[in-house]
Design brief:
There is one protein chain. By secondary structure, this protein is of the alpha+beta class. Helix content is about 30%, strand content about 25%. The strands form 3 sheets. A 4-stranded antiparallel β-sheet has the order 1-8-9-10. The longest helix is centred in the N-terminal third of the chain and has 58 residues. The chain is elongated, with a radius of gyration of 40 Å.
Length: about 230
């Protein structure tokens, strides 16, 4: 009888020992090992994410600064023998931006430019564009009315033009295309070109790009061959 009680006690003790061992193993594997490892992984992932975000911030392209200051030394093709002074200039035709791709032109006073051109019954013309127009300008340069020009500042910063007298004489009231070697234009200045010598001078217009670069439009338009 005593032997049976002893065996039963041993069995209970073994069962308790096994249970304690299992609990200890579970504690070691989960609390002391698995959870710390998990926390370590989470921490490492957070650090990686922070580094990625930091790198993305560093790689962000800075926005282009627009320089609208009038600095004649930045002009790429100005005449060295002249001084350029901002000036206002009147014109004898009218142009209106109907929408962002359409310009309406009224030529009712075109004969004041050239006496050989008589005002016809049709005074108004419409020019349509594929690209959007940001602004329009009627400009004149030099001392000859035949140089009167309609300039279109396009949304992409390029300039298109219509040589008014030439267009009327040839009945080609349209855009004559893009002015070469001018880009990123944000503004146009009406200027007086004063000869640096004893006497002389004329007028012109300067186109200004977003970085402050200036272009003498008179010199560029003369090279097109549409002002002879």
């Amino acid at each position: 009888m005593e032997t049976k009680k002893t065996n039963k006690g041993i069995i209970i003790t073994l069962i308790l020992f096994i249970i304690i061992a299992l609990v200890e193993c579970w504690y070691i594997l989960t609390i002391k090992k698995v959870i710390p490892d998990y926390l370590k992984i989470v921490k490492e992932e957070k650090v990686v994410e922070e580094k990625v975000e930091a790198n993305e911030e560093v790689k962000e392209e800075p926005k282009e600064e627009v320089d609208l200051s009038f600095d004649i030394t930045k002009c790429q093709n100005c005449d060295d023998d002249f001084e350029y002074v901002i000036n206002d200039f009147g014109d004898f035709i009218t142009a209106e931006l109907i929408n962002d791709k359409t310009v309406n032109i009224n030529l009712r006073d075109i004969s004041k430019f050239d006496s050989s051109i008589q005002t016809s019954e049709q005074n108004e013309y419409t020019i349509n564009f594929d690209k959007k127009i940001r602004n329009i300008y009627i400009i004149g340069y030099g001392l000859d009315a035949a140089n009167e020009t309609l300039i279109y500042l396009m949304e992409d910063g390029t300039l298109e033009y219509t040589p008014i007298i030439n267009a009327v004489k040839n009945n080609t009231i349209k855009s004559y295309g893009t002015i070469n070697n001018v880009k990123n234009v944000v503004s146009i200045y009406n200027v007086r070109k004063d000869y640096k010598g004893p006497v002389g001078g004329s007028t012109s217009y300067l186109a200004q790009s977003s970085d402050g670069t200036l272009y003498d439009l008179a010199n560029l338009l003369d090279k097109t061959g549409n002002y002879n």
